[in-house]
Amino acid sequence: MRLVLLGPPGAGKGTQAARLAAELDVPAISTGDIFRANVTEGTELGRTAKQYMDEGEYVPDEVTNAMVRDRLRADDARDGFLLDGYPRTPAQVEELDLMLGEAGVDAVVQLTVDTEEVVARLAQRATEQQRSDDGEAVQRHRLEVYEEQTAPLVDVYDRRGLLRPVDGMGAVPAVTARILAALDRG
Ligand code: AMP
Predict the structure, then answer these.
(1) Which helix (H) or strand (E) holds 165?
(2) Which atom of ligand 1 lies at the shortest distance from residue 145's CA?
(3) What is the residue with the minimal CA distance to atom 19 of ligand 1?
(4) pLDDT, tens only, 97-117
(5) 158 burial class (0-12, 13-18, 19+ CB within 10 angstroms)?
């Protein structure tokens, strides 16, 4: 199964991606996690990405696309994968189309949450994980960037008949169950 998880920061993508990956036996590929690992390791990619991440901006498409292209070539992604946090711009959608060829993705899960809940979740995560991009101003900016650059992808995938909107509110296992049901895996 080749899946994309779409949703604003704080929607629970990372949490659900890990659970779904285990359930569906595919690797969860999180561009945010790969960038953070590179920042920790002090690689050149990490140094580039950090400048954007700390401002709540997207890392440039060329950088992100090259990284995903490389990751999708790995053996474990041959029979399926779950992309968490990619694509995030129309240019990334185009690039992913090229990477996957005719097969494309099987479904795009859109996690929906109300804005107040997202803000509360982000505040909680800031306390728990101390991510350098989880300060309040940066969080607000990340939500704006999502609305501007990523929200339009909902329509793109809806027009292709691939969109599976799922209510992301409530308990974590309940949301996982809803996603699996939306994918006919429930
Ligand atoms: P995330 O963990 O998915 O919230 O991503 C954290 C940060 O990594 C984002 O705010 C961006 O700066 C960067 N990032 C992650 N995925 C992408 C992407 N697909 N395109 C551009 N930047 C990304």
Answers:
(1) strand 163-167
(2) 10
(3) 86
(4) 999 999 899 999 999 998 888
(5) middle
Q: What residues does 81 pair with on adjacent strands? A: 2
CATH 3.40.50.300 fits 2-182, yes or no: yes
Contact call for residues 45 and 34 (beta carbons, < 8 A): no
Domain locations in the chain as residue ranges: 2-182
H or E element in which residue 133 lies: none
Say if pTM beats, i.e. exceeds, 0.90: yes
Task: Please name the residue ranges forming H helices in the chain.
Answer: 13-24, 31-41, 44-53, 61-72, 90-100, 115-129, 136-145, 152-159, 172-182
**Which of 4, 58, 86, 141 to mutate to test ligand 1, by most ligand atoms within 8 A of the CB atom?**
58
pLDDT in tens, 24-76: 999 999 999 999 999 999 999 999 999 999 999 999 999 999 999 999 999 99
